[in-house]
Amino acid sequence: MSDKALSRRAMFRTAAGAAAAVGLAGAMSGTAHAGWGPPGRRIPKQMISIQLYTLRNLFEADLEGTLEALADIGYRSVELAGTYGRSAAEFRGLLDRYHLRATSAHVGFDGEDVDALIEDARTLGYRKAACAYANYSTLEEWRAFGGRLDKAAAAFRKAGISYGYHNHAHEYQAIDGVRPIDVIAERTSPRNVHLEYDLYWVVDGGADPVEEYYRRFGRVQQFHVKDRGEDGGWADVGTGTIDWATLFRRTWAGPMKQYIVEHDDPADPLNTAKVGYDYLADLRF
User: Is residue 38 scored above 80 in pLDDT?
Assistant: First the structure.
């Protein structure tokens, strides 16, 4: 697929993939067909979130003021990326004060006390978490990582928390003919590990987000909604080249998802947050 449009080939492949995944007799019936009607669907506002990494510089200067500003924009859900020097209990108190709910978090597990991470998750209240980054040069290392990831995720699952993996572009670049993203999926149990697709990085890695969604149908439970500019760099959601309406319409079938606004290096983080929220809240697909 090009960077600017989803392929017609993907449309037919993914329709069939959805039908097979949900056990339907016809590719254009039932749940699969529900994702292909005329525009008009909207993302429920409670499913719109923001990755707080987007606002990290503002949090360092004014944590409470920035959380209040997010609430004023309309956000009710956030994805955590640390607690900025506060304890889990202190940060939970701030979220409650501004009527924000942590629905997910980026939490590294390698070399960490998983039991302690689970306790923090319970305090903060989120039910989904994800490993934000991993990068290895060999398939052997990726396979070993998959084993560790699955073990940690099993512990999270037993505690009632779904643990997943968040991609970048390099997981879609083959090593000896095999993509690391496929190694991760195959070396982990769908019961233990869900996938959080960063859609900018999927596109940047040369993959079709719709094809990838149905390749692992049922495991993708979170989207990082990060737009791609004409120059290939990051852009505020709705101002770049990714066709969000088409992408969301074609991936509506399946489990409930979180749509998480993100920008890795915004010039004006609060404006980026507002532009993203307003775009997703107003989008019809």
Answer: no
